């Protein structure tokens, strides 16, 4: 039995298998429509989610399985003080596989230690979000045709953004990755990521604070929200916030084949006028998330397809 708590729980070979399977599921959905018949997915979501929870549910239903679970801690026995360990022990007897989102870093890892069914981390605090990473990788692979030798710009909240941390950890395993880290000083990526991942693996990267300065260099722009609540004072936020809003005018500086990704939800960091640009692929990215979760579920359940 295998759990997926971090993108690093999957080898490059396993990642490639899941991405290839997801592509086939995208092209031939009927072929897989009954392969999880009789199987149940438990969705244990201790904090709000739209795309992740619903895409997990859509994935299992597309595979012919069924879904049970809760969408907030308030509607579970966590409100009575039940531990994650006890919850997963019980849920293991109700379902065949589990997807868990939790505000506390490490909670899905704790669950995996007590579970008798595969546990998928659907996001834990500011730590990891492996299925979003799989979604990002699938989007890049399908639309760019490859995952190596890409220059990726990460823009916005790089300090607390778990999707950014997860994708960096995954992309450093592909040859020729090069990162541009675009953020205010207050929201730069954590020191441990620089030292233990980028520096240790000798991955080229640079840190900048103005998006326009680097747009023309990028193959991929991965946008995230700069959150007002992360700043110590409002003046700094007001001074910096517009530097990290993507507009049609800024898109004129980018390459014709640059892709704009975003894990969503989008607030105001991408102007709605950008949505009509063919390079803006974040809604397509959300669609791909269903197929990559289908592939992961089938893989973890060890179903032959």
Molecular structure report:
With 305 residues, the chain is of the alpha/beta class. Helix content is 35%, strand content 14%. The protein has ten helices and nine strands. It has helices at 12-27, 51-62, 84-91, 107-114, 130-144, 162-171, 191-199, 234-240, 248-251, 282-300, and strands at residues 40-45, 66-70, 97-102, 119-124, 151-155, 178-182, 205-208, 220-223, 259-261. It has a five-stranded parallel sheet with strand order 7-6-5-8-9, covered by helices on one side. A four-stranded parallel sheet has the order 2-1-3-4, sandwiched between helices. β5 (151-155), α6 and β6 (178-182) form a beta-alpha-beta unit. α3 (84-91) packs across α4 (107-114) and α5 (130-144) crosses α6. The longest helix is centred in the last third of the chain and has 19 residues, at 282-300. The protein is globular. The two termini are 18 Å apart. The mean pLDDT is 91.
